[in-house]
Amino acid sequence: MSNSAVEFRMHTDGDENPVDWLSVPEDVILEACGNPSLPELGIIEQVWETNPIPAADVPEAAAKAVAALSFADVPEGGEVALGVGSRGIANIPDIVAGVVDAVSEAGYEPFVFPAMGSHGGATGEGQREMLNELGITEERIGCEIRSSMEVVEVGRTPDRDVPVVADANAAGADAIVPINRVKPHTDFDGEVESGLSKMLVIGMGKQRGAQIAHKWAVDWSFRRMIPEITEQLLDSLPIVGGVAVVEDQHDDTTLIEGVPPSGFLDRERELLETAYELMPKLPFEELDLVVFDRQGKEISGQGMDTNVIGRRPFSINEPAPEKPNIKRIYTHGLTEKTHGNAMGVGSADVIHEDIVAELDAQTTLINALTASTIRGVKLPPVVETDRAGVVAALSTIGVVDPDTVRVVRAADTMHLHRLYASPALVEEARERDDLRVVEEPSPIAFEAGQFAAPSLRD
């Protein structure tokens, strides 16, 4: 259990495990809900046509992306700052290594700086450790990593006089190249969302820049703020372009492209449309219950991707996606790589006690304060077993018929290729070309109340 979890003891005597008083025992849940019959679950598979870049070709593709950028104004032997974030991007060590090799071969001195806002506990060492866990070490990528939370102010926005800040190491370099995946954002909809521009505004701004952006977004909105501040950063700093990555439904690398400064908004808008088409989604628009085995920051910035679950209860003046409509969400645990950061846990209706045991209160709260989304870390009701979680969720949606209730169990919001599905959904899958039935429904197997069947991960 994380040391920070003791913060949840509050009214206890200090010796009691916080999970003990937060979690409701299974027998209490079953008695309160009448121990209802649960639906059987089969396995279905989404049929996707993909064209990923072979893993062995990723470094070369990254190098070609660099070749598309102009370094004409960079002095020979000049320093090139490469911005790298904390998200779980496929092949990210190979992509960064490919960029480093290309920059080095062109006669420049590359270094990597973490462009991840307040992640890593808002410390330089914490952000270096996050890169290390992504496989991005100095030995692996072949260049220095400079990790610091120090920022410098590089300007102010013309209309609102908002300070624009950037990583001090990056601002002092002769050139800057952010490397990031372009994808739909969890907190807002806009012409550009998560990608190169957002990395410049929020990631490169470190904790201070991220906090400034999220505070001003309450009145300004991200969809208008990010383009405006991006243009100011492009005018104020030696940004020679970025390396954009797009992934397919399996989260495999499908595109690596060098985007010049002039294309940060226009080309990124086009890449976002492609990313929307390729992102994995739940194959049903109406669901009674979705069970996620895990959530985490490398899965989504909000732990569970809001574009997948159709919920955005903590966003800043942004509507939730129209679909899907999910009546209840039950989540079992946190990923190891999230380091106890339970950002977005408030999107669930019921959670397993493992989340509380793994939760790092300080890291989670810092992230929520920086993002101005404290509602997203409110703890839902806590249960001690998976059976209790499923029963509690289904018992609060009205009359439930095991043959017609619509239930899905998935590994997380990123891995949606194979899914456990209730009989009604399995029957629907038989009639659809985009779905395949892999295994017929059978009773849910529990061991001491926990799921006996393994998680379905791609």
The dominant shape is globular
Number of helices in the DSSP assignment:
16
- List the domain count as a whole number: 2
How much beta, percentage-wise?
15-25%
Quickly name the level 1 CATH class of the largest domain: Alpha Beta
Rg (CA only): 23 Å
Approximate helicity band: 25-40%
What fold name stands as the CATH topology of the largest domain? Answer: Rossmann fold
Please summarize the sheet with the most strands. Answer: 9 strands, mixed
Architecture of the largest domain, CATH level 2? 3-Layer(aba) Sandwich
Distance between the termini: 28 Å
The mean pLDDT is 89
- Any low-confidence stretches, pLDDT <50, length ≥5? 1-14
Q: Which structural class matches the secondary elements? A: alpha/beta
Classified in CATH, the superfamily of the largest domain is LarA, N-terminal domain
